[in-house]
Amino acid sequence: MNHQQLDEYLRKFDYIEEVQIKTGNNVNDFDGHELLIESGSNIPRMQEEYFFHRGPIFINKHHRFADMPLHIHSFIEINYVYSGICKQIINEKEITLTKGQVCLLDTDVPHSIPALGKDDILINIIMKKETFSTAFWTQFTGKGVVSEFLLNALTENQVHDRYILFHSQDNDELQYTIKKVLCEFFDPSDYSLEIVSALLPVLFIELMRIYQLDKNFESEEKIGRTNIMEILHYIERNYKECTLTSLAKQFNFNSNYLGNMLKERTGKTFIELLQSQKMVRASVLLKNTSKSIGEIAFEIGYESSSFFHRKFKDHYGCTPNHYRKKK
Description:
Elements: H1 3-11, H2 15-23, E1 35-36, E2 45-46, E3 57-61, E4 68-73, E5 76-83, E6 85-90, E7 93-98, E8 102-105, E9 111-113, E10 121-127, H3 129-140, H4 145-151, E11 163-166, H5 172-186, H6 192-210, H7 228-238, H8 244-250, H9 255-266, H10 270-288, H11 293-299, H12 305-316, H13 320-326
GO molecular function, one term: DNA-binding transcription factor activity
Domain HTH araC/xylS-type: 229-326
Protein name: AraC family transcriptional regulator
């Protein structure tokens, strides 16, 4: 399947859409039992056993012309707008996705989708939580405080609505990668699932490049033109000489206010963020250079090698020498 064939495949009415365009009523994909109300909940849960017979990843086109009712599920969902627009109600908030944008939904997030029009084509990519962890989290651990922030973006201790909207419409590499994934999944041949699995980390790397998150990750109070990502990028670039005072001055904040904001938004103090970035840099030098431990300690801003040893072991659970041997 090439991109032209993919376009024709996605725009063609499937049998459910043929019914939904006539009735306006939602038609279940399977036997009608995929949405069940479980004990203690009044929101139907989508049952995952219907989706993963071919593997831990399932992809389908969202059926147009009828409302998708409010539901939750225990898997990670990636929504990609191939064409047109898509409105969603997530945790009682309405968001609008436009062509080329991606929305990443955590597990157990109540959401519904009003009826899509003829030119509104939404792709659902769903995967088990453990598949998401393998494809995404393990790719980016130890890459810096910005990556760490995104890795923790869907955990329970963060202040957000448990979804991320990526403004990815102008990222051509992401568009190409997703279309390649769709071609392999919808028209499988030998090793198609292996190719899809291999492309998922690439997809997430492109999402990491975009960085612009929906306003549910922005501060509730509009703070000039600065957001948390800019601050974390600055810490990554200037960790050796950065202090809370200099950081606050750079972004026109009161030091105490900035320290409290960082703690609230990232779950870490400024000092912990700084230490984390130093440890990331140290791990890179240990893996990729022959510099001595003392030289590495000095390069990342520690005058005492013994203090560096202690901090490194606290962070990684092993000594710098042992870490280097494991590379």
